[in-house]
Amino acid sequence: MELNRTASTQVIMELDTCFATLTDGCLRIGNALIEREWRIAANGLLHPTALIDHVSGTEWLESAGDVPPIHPEGRLPDEMRTLALHLSRGKHCPTEGMSLVATLTAAGEQVTVVTTFQVFPDCPALSMQVTCRGATGDAVSSISADPGQPTGIETVPGESGAGFENDVMDVLVLALQHLRLTVVTLRDQTDRHDELVHEEEMLLHPNKNSRDFEGILFAIEDPLLGHGLVMVKEAPLPHACPVAGSPALQVRGHTCTIRGHGTGGDGLPGYRLTIMTYSGGSMGRTATLQRWQRTLRQYQPGRDGLLVTNTWGDRSQDSRLNEPFMAGEVEGCAGLGADVVQIDDGWQQGRTANSIVSSGVWEGFWKVDPEFWEVNRDRFPHGLEKLIQRARELGMEFGLWFAPDSAGDFANWRKDADCILALHRTLRVDFFKIDGVKAGTKQGERNLRLFFDRVLGESDGKIVFDLDVTAGIRPGYFGMINVGPVFVENRYTDWFNYWPHRTLRNLWQLARWIDPLRLRMEFLNNARNTERYDGDPLAPGAYSPACLFASVLFSSPLGWFEASGLAASYVAQVATLAEIRRDHQDALFSGFILPVGSVPDGVLWTGFVSVDSGHASAYALVFRELSTRTEWTLALDGIIDQQDLVLKVLAGEGTVDLVGEGVRFSIPEPLGFLFVRLEGSG
């Protein structure tokens, strides 16, 4: 549906509970859970006027006063713009759910501003994205050189000189009096960083001095009631954004301005900004974030959350890759209970810079060798067909490593897409680890997105990409949510940088903000390099193989080892737990996953719960680290109704029983775990 707005025009479209209306210069979009409203000026720019949480009945925005508009990067010519609203409903990406998409076009003689909105049924989130076509002036920063430093010149609180001239993604003039802001700093490039999540909290105050923050993830909560907002910029982390801009969040009293469209002013689409509402404090916030992420990439049994194995974790790199070795890996992975056996770098004809055999390249693959991505004829003289066939006979899928060619801003993205699709169609390879990405420009970022979009579209979403964020300039945790899991870490006992409690810590902290289903987290062969950890009570060898696997059980787990080299006892323990996990996997990932207990540090009680949407059943995965306490109680408030609750231990050593308002876990030995099903008897 598309038409031009006049004073009396009314445009309405609905999808389940989703709606979009345009009436007399007022745009309203939302669903039964969230609603937003904007006043449209004569120049076509949107002024936010309402943000309503229909669950709690909260109006988040102050209605009085003239609110600055959402503004593209750069200066816009002062001109009238004609409005047209196009509405579409359906599945707009193979991995998404059904949604309503509204595209508002404000067309001028010199510049046209296009704002696209998306809302899903049963999800309290609304996304918007701005694209500007035509010449705009150079972006002018509205931030002083050092805005956070006092100058000694007294000014009336709230009268900061910072303006809203350009590069405004949204403006929230908050109506509530008592608010707490959480600024979340995420880190990727995990080859260099290990502490991946940092949270800074502060109370907002109408007279508080101006503050500016970098980042892509922020939350605002009413601490009195537990209602809140989450703001996510679907972009790479700040260090990886090709377009440098203003601080992402500017706070001036109770006015929050989100900046950083990231278009570069050249007509390419800006980053999407998603704002969502929640209730129930931090637990409700985590659940809402996961619900939103699973609208962009819906959980699909047999595709998502699978146990993948990859030989690279044992550091032989490509030195052992050949047909006999991989035949042994296929058999070993089957005995382990793996779902996917994956070959890392080295299956292909070309050599990369990570080859242990000879020096190679890290981009420009097609220029070096037009047959770079053919199967290596020396290592696999009979191709991969027999290996893949045998894997399928044993109930597994097959995966490969791949690096899109970063040269020329991914100028060869079509060739890369053709290559992946050919492997998908001829060999039925659906799982790819994506590495080597260097998206350092806006055009490169755009072409990388076109590569993923084409492959997902032509495979109907069957292909799964693991996006490696261990190094380079890459989309990160929120840059391309619909593509597949995030490959979080490279950790090796050879390099003395793998400790199970540290991987568990990263998973636990990330899970507060990122759906654990989207995190590929590793466990290793703890019998290797034991001498490097001599005397360390938290050494990998101090854990049972089952506990190592359990530490990543609620994620998309990665067996980061050569399966053919595992001890029989290791295989037996992991295989037993893998079978249990497979029996419960669909129920596990149909709920939202909450970190519980303390932040893992090696000496505490910690874990996760998965709670179904109706709070009628749950799973609990609890770890006793090197704690001297043999018991710990999980409070059930907000998780599940305790009445007539039935507890069943699925795996681990210990017991559980109901006490007061919670479940008491008893684990007799340190570095142990319990995996428990909680279900109402009715």
Can you give a write-up of this model?
Helix 6 (413-427) packs parallel to helix 7. The protein folds into three domains: 2-150 and 162-296, Distorted Sandwich (Beta-galactosidase, Chain A, domain 5); 308-583, Aldolase class I (TIM Barrel); 605-680. Strands 1-8-9-10-11-20-17-16-13-14 form a ten-stranded antiparallel beta sheet. An eight-stranded parallel barrel has the order 21-22-23-24-25-26-27-28. By secondary structure, the protein is α+β, with helices and mostly antiparallel strands.
Short description:
With 682 residues, this protein is α+β, with helices and mostly antiparallel strands. The N terminus is likely disordered.
- Give the tally of structural domains: 3
**Major beta sheet summary:** 10 strands, antiparallel
Structural class, please?
Answer: alpha+beta
Counted by DSSP, the helix tally is: 10
Average pLDDT metric: 92
Helix content: 10-25%
Strand order of the largest sheet: 1-8-9-10-11-20-17-16-13-14
- The CATH class assignment of the largest domain is Mainly Beta
Give the amount of beta strand, in percent: 25-35%
Q: Give the beta-strand count.
A: 36
